[in-house]
Design brief:
Helix 4 packs antiparallel against helix 5 (about 110-130), helix 4 (about 80-110) packs antiparallel against helix 9 (about 235-260) and helix 7 runs antiparallel to helix 15 (about 415-430). The protein is about 75% helix and about 0% strand. It has helices at about 25-30, 45-65, 70-75, 80-110, 110-130, 135-165, 165-195, 200-215, 235-260, 280-305, 320-350, 355-360, 365-385, 385-405, 415-430, 435-440, 445-485, 495-505, 510-520, 525-560, 565-575; strands spanning about 15-20, 265-270, 270-275, 560-565. Mean pLDDT is about 80; it is low at about 1-25, about 35-40 and about 560-575. It is mainly α. The strands form two sheets. It has a two-stranded antiparallel sheet with strand order 1-4. A two-stranded antiparallel ribbon has the order 2-3. It is globular, with a radius of gyration of 24 Å. The longest helix has about 40 residues, at about 445-485.
């Protein structure tokens, strides 16, 4: 079977589009991706070890942070919402600046930007390790580390594409994808153990050491000089795209506290509530973000017509395989990071588990994700990337639905563990293949830019997953608590109204004991405090079910994409030629 190693951007076909199931989305585009060799790891040498180590560190961060939430809240005297902001801001900074980071690789050389990005990332990790407050954590982790990662992640992709070719390149992408899955899987256990036995700070201090070792080994990477002629960075394009993406995700994040449409805990400036036309400010923030993104598209088109360097070659967005791969990656990250946010929050804050016990409770998902991610390259060599992604997608969708039906108070039943294990298989298989599906769709000269697009989709999906699924959790908790209080005769009308007023503004997630203690401290009689706290605990479980239900909906949508029929036939014909 003969396959081309690269393809130039293609013009989309005018053939009619058709509704597609699991067999016809990005999975079918994956037919055109090169298959992996049976024993790839023994033939790729030291460069893949260096790049895979960098990928491991980049991905490990978020999964460690998710299982350390309760300890960070305690150490920094902050709230769950504060840590949620830090997690979302970290992935948002990466998503917003990924295109700029990729362009810097063209301007100064991929290997040089890889090293600079790692140094910046290490500085951010050190700042995070010693952070005394949420503000310093936001600066060190969310901004500085995010900035470094925005340079490193596109460089990893483009260095692989430039160092390897054909089946070796496919194998390298499979290994790096597998390592990403391993990092997500290992994060809860590594972070949980270190946080419980020592401190979450040691994880970030350890990252500084790993980064230093990678920098020392950098000389083994193939050098890539700057592009000739050297392009110029489109600063206005960077500003417009970053602002647009930032506003969209920020709006989604604040929907839980400000209300999506109806004002809840409205934005307040100098004592004045901001409620445009009686609505929440959230939809206006999101619309403003979309406006900036539209302005970015118009600005790029204008520069392209003028023959100036652009931040994004819009011709790439007309490649069906690339679009399908990126949209699938975005949705997969939304689903995965949504799960990795809401489950640790419930396990730690509601059930009171420490970070290590949280990691153990998530172990079925962690271990199957690791195994599936590492097995993905070998499976693709035998059955083709299309089949591997297909099985992964179906497993992800099925597991998301199973999870909804297995949620109980303690999250310790066998069926819950089985659902997590199936979820891990799906996520691991997809992680091992999507990078190769995306990068095999473009010409080698476009790998830097495509790496930036891939990173943008990946981190935008992660940011939206944390924000959106977290918002569903908090909003559902608040609304269900109000409903339960209205039906509880043990709570007097006056007390109920006071609690409902607070709940309508978005209540924090705390344990039932903490909620009862807070009510007692506020002067609520003991019997009433117990009744309200009991309803609060039931509302928490309802909120978790709603959040997992939202994940299941997104997983189902991922299963129902569309692809141009003519383009699909052309890709298949090329793959089978």
């Amino acid at each position: 079977m003969t396959r081309s190693r690269s393809r130039s951007p293609r013009t989309p076909s005018c053939a009619p589009r058709r509704s597609a199931g699991p067999e016809d989305t990005v999975i079918d585009a994956a037919v055109a991706a090169p298959a992996q060799e049976e024993r790839p790891a023994t033939r790729l040498g030291l460069p893949i070890v260096i790049l895979a180590a960098a990928q491991f560190v980049m991905v490990l961060d978020s999964s460690v942070m998710n299982v350390s939430i309760s300890q960070i809240v305690k150490d920094l005297h902050t709230t769950i919402q504060g840590v949620q902001l830090a997690i979302t801001a970290y992935t948002l900074v990466m998503a917003a600046l990924m295109l700029a980071g990729a362009k810097l690789g063209d301007i100064y050389g991929r290997d040089r930007i890889f090293a600079i990005g790692l140094a910046v990332y290490g500085l951010g990790s050190l700042t995070t390790a010693i952070s005394p407050s949420l503000g310093v954590l936001l600066f060190g982790w969310s901004f500085v580390e995010g900035l470094g990662a925005a340079m490193v992640m596109p460089a990893i992709v483009s260095l692989i594409a430039g160092t390897y070719a054909g089946k070796q390149r496919a194998a390298a992408f499979g290994i790096v994808g597998g390592i990403a899955g391993a990092a997500i899987a290992a994060g809860p256990l590594i972070g949980g153990w270190v946080t419980t036995e020592l401190s979450w700070r040691y994880v970030f201090a350890g990252e500084v050491v790993i980064v230093a070792v990678i920098l020392l080994m950098r000389r083994h990477l193939k050098p890539f000089p700057a592009a000739d002629p050297r392009p110029k960075l489109d600063f206005m394009g960077v500003a417009l795209s970053a602002t647009g993406l930032g506003l969209v995700v920020f709006g989604v994040l604040k929907s839980s506290s400000w209300g999506l449409i109806e004002p809840r805990g409205a934005l307040t400036i100098n004592g004045t509530e901001i409620t445009p036309f009686g609505f929440s400010v959230v939809p206006f923030v999101i619309l403003a973000g979309l406006g900036f993104l539209a302005a970015f598209a118009a600005w790029e088109e204008r520069r392209e017509r003028s023959g100036l360097d652009v931040l994004l070659d819009r011709a790439l967005l007309r490649i069906e395989q690339l679009k399908a791969g990126m949209s699938t990656l975005l949705m997969q990250q939304l689903i995965l990071l949504g799960i990795f946010f809401v489950l640790p929050v419930y396990l730690q804050v509601v059930l009171g588990l420490n970070a290590f016990d949280t990691g153990k409770r998530l172990f079925p998902m962690s271990v199957t994700m690791f195994i599936a991610a590492m097995a993905g390259p070998r499976l693709a060599a035998r059955f083709a990337p299309k089949r591997v992604v297909q099985v992964g997608l179906l497993a992800l969708a099925a597991a998301s639905i199973l999870l909804v039906g297995t949620i109980n108070v303690e999250l310790n039943e066998a069926d819950f563990a089985i659902a997590l294990a199936v979820f891990g298989i799906g996520a691991g298989l997809m992680l091992s293949q999507l990078g190769n599906v995306i990068m095999s769709s473009v010409d080698p000269s476009k790998t830097n830019e495509t790496g930036g697009l891939q990173g943008t989709a990946q981190n935008l999906g992660a940011s939206l997953g944390t924000a959106l699924i977290g918002a569903v959790l908090i909003a559902s908790l608040s609304s269900n608590l109000i409903t339960r209080l209205e039906q509880n005769p043990a709570v007097p009308a006056e007390t109920r109204q006071q609690v409902e007023q607070l709940a309508s503004k978005g209540i924090p997630i705390v344990s039932v004991d903490q909620a009862q203690a807070a009510l007692t401290d506020a002067g609520v009689p003991q019997d009433q405090a117990e009744a309200i706290a009991g309803d609060y605990g039931k509302a928490q479980l309802h909120g978790l079910k709603r959040a997992i239900g939202a994940v299941a909906i997104f997983a189902h949508l991922l299963d129902k994409g569309t692809i141009d029929q003519g383009e699909f036939d052309r890709i298949k014909a090329q793959a089978l030629a």
